[in-house]
Amino acid sequence: QGNIRVFCRVRPLLPEERERQRGLPHLHFPPQDHHSLVLTRPDDSQVGRERRAELRYDFSFDRVFPPAASQQEIFQEIQLLVQSALDGYPVCIFAYGQTGSGKTFTMEGPDPPGPPESRGMIPRAVRHLFLGARDLAGKGWQYHFSASFLEIYNESLRDLLLGKGERGSDLEIRRMGPGSDELHVPNLTWVPVESEEQVLELLLRAGSQRSVARTGLNERSSRSHSVFQLRIRGEHPARDLQCA
Questions:
Q1: What is the pTM for the complete model shown?
Q2: Which of 98, 108, 119, 193 could form a disulfide with 198 if both were Cys (CB 3.0 to 4.6 A apart)?
Q3: 234 annotated to a ligand binding site
């Protein structure tokens, strides 16, 4: 379905927002069309008593998710991308948006963790990968997983998986080697993982160390960029095959 796909997710109104406004009258989701989003607003300019028609802006995406969309619906759209990581292809899922738009909820789930259906893309992707690795074990493949979690805050990098009281070394983004486009962060903590539950524990550990602050839109904004990485190494000894 394309190497690069762009989705738009609109989050529901928060309780305090519902008190100030009724619904989302400026947002329109055309029925039977999962690729379009229409923004409208009245044109306040008037000529005498004549009022102009409202302004309309049409946007199209590979997929649009209205406020009622569930975490499972989002994951169904990226499930095949996640699967291709087991086949040795690099995959990146990138959430972009302003403060309070729901990036952390989409990727990690609620804080504190809620019921299984509220889990975010990271735990769902990891669960899918572990299940896939078990299936492929019957065909002779052996997989090893390790995870890292870093934060980029005020132009500096912070290792979010350090133990309490541990002081990490200064982190920098480096190229893997001369002429290589692949990047890495030397001295970043990588933790071997074997289950979805272990990854959820890492998310909790990382979340407790993130830089957070109150903003006008969010009681507890992340105030930073975070990057979760899962390194996958597979080998098939009988056929002398490897993937990463």
A1: 0.84
A2: 193
A3: no
For residue 67, the model assigns a pLDDT of: 94
Query: What architecture (CATH level 2) is domain 70-243?
Result: 3-Layer(aba) Sandwich (3.40)
Other beta carbons within 10 Å of 226: 21
101 assigned binding-site residue: yes
Find out whether 98 is annotated in a ligand binding site.
yes
Strand partners, 227: 150
So where are the chain's domains? 1-67, 70-243
Convert the pLDDT of each residue in 28-39 to its tens digit.
999 889 999 999
Strands (E) in the chain, as ranges, are: 7-9, 27-28, 36-41, 46-47, 50-51, 55-60, 63-65, 142-153, 156-159, 174-175, 183-184, 191-193, 225-236, 241-243
The predicted-structure confidence for 203-215, as pLDDT tens digits, reads as follows 888 888 876 655 5
97 annotated as belonging to a binding site for a ligand: yes
Tokens representing 172 are: 């920098």
Q: Is residue 103 a known part of a binding site?
A: yes
Residue 39 near residue 27 (C-beta atoms within 8 A): yes
